[in-house]
Amino acid sequence: MSELGAFANQGRTSVELFAGGGGLVMAVGRAGFRPLLLNELGKHACETLIANGARPYDVGEDRPPVPEVGEDPPLLRGDVAKVEFDHLVGLVDVLAGGPPCQPFSLGGNGRGDEDGRNGFPHMFRAVREMRPKAVICENVRGLLRPSFAPYFEYIKREFTLPFEQRREGSAWHEHDARLRELIDDDSGSAHERYDVVHFAVNAADFGVPQVRNRVILIAFRQDLGVDMMRFQELVKPQFSESSLYESMTDGTYWDRHPEVPQHVREMAMARIPRQTSLAGTGDRAAAWRTLRDAIEGIDEQKRLPPIPIDHLDRKERRLGGFVDHIGWPDARIYKGHTPNELDRPAKTVKAGVHGVPGGESVVKLDDGSHRYMSVREAARVMTFPDNWTLAGSRGEKMRQLGNAVPVLLGQAFAEAVAVVLDKAEKPT
Fold this sequence. Notes:
This protein is α/β, with parallel strands linked by helices. The chain contains 13 helices and 13 strands. The chain has helices spanning 23-30, 43-51, 120-130, 149-160, 172-184, 228-234, 241-250, 252-256, 262-270, 291-296, 375-381, 394-403, 407-425; strands at residues 12-17, 33-40, 55-58, 74-77, 94-97, 134-140, 194-202, 213-221, 239-240, 286-287, 340-341, 362-364, 370-372. α6 packs antiparallel against α13 (407-425).
């Protein structure tokens, strides 16, 4: 059975826009949602989704059918601006998507609303046409920068009243003023109004072996009466940095990794802050997962074998039977371009459209040498399963991973959405 086919018999339903390499698709599916439609523009990302079970259709051709239970989801390839969603009205539990982040990221040009790649208007239109019960939207932390904060508040107001459409040709701040008035007056019926909340998150706090700061925006249709306080309780972080330090100090971390040389342990321990305190609320938080944890295997994964120095030659050897675990030559370390450390969560995996400037794809090994991370290692850092197929060249695969939502991060929020929807819809 294909990876996406594994979700074909589930009860709740989802639609995914800006599906990319499939991180949020996988996350929402694991939370119990059956995908009714995927949309993506990028050629190689589409090939990845097809390789994992999506059925391809092209924008402009016949409208893809709504899949029956047990059928693989349709992938609509092409510009989301040309996609119609009204055939899905009343059928969708969750609309999910990670609109292109370049307009708001530090690595982009920072034009925000003026940038043609801004995908939020298409999310608003999809909400109007489908009327989903909930929305999950992921983006870069840059949306919270002071320069973008007013626009981000406008985004939240648009999700609150998505049926109050922006007049053609008007500036966003003019529409924002109108939304403010309507919200203050409590205008709009409950089935056309959404309760909206956002979360500034670090993926490491949700079991992802990577420091990745993002914004998760959640919206629930107001007529459902979802318990928003309960939802916020469900998405509290379950992992912490201080617990990682404590596990190193009491030895439980090293018990999991007995092969680590003593001098490497001592260097890792020397970097522990003198004063640490356990994070979390109530119950003890689990330890942050590290790059070493990812390579050794999280949950049911098997250990990725070492890549010998004479294998840094771009050749596929399927070391240990793993695909994309290929050595790559010429990794460098210099000022401002420092490697990942094995006993910390990895640095943020980046798409690298204009090159990766900070050494995010380089790892320092126990013997003091360094090399590029393999695609498979980067996929584990993004918490993709080993059997998720990535299409394209190494650069294209890394681009898809850098643009994706870490599976475990998205899954934590999607599972919480499922819980509160179940409770809201359960007969009393």
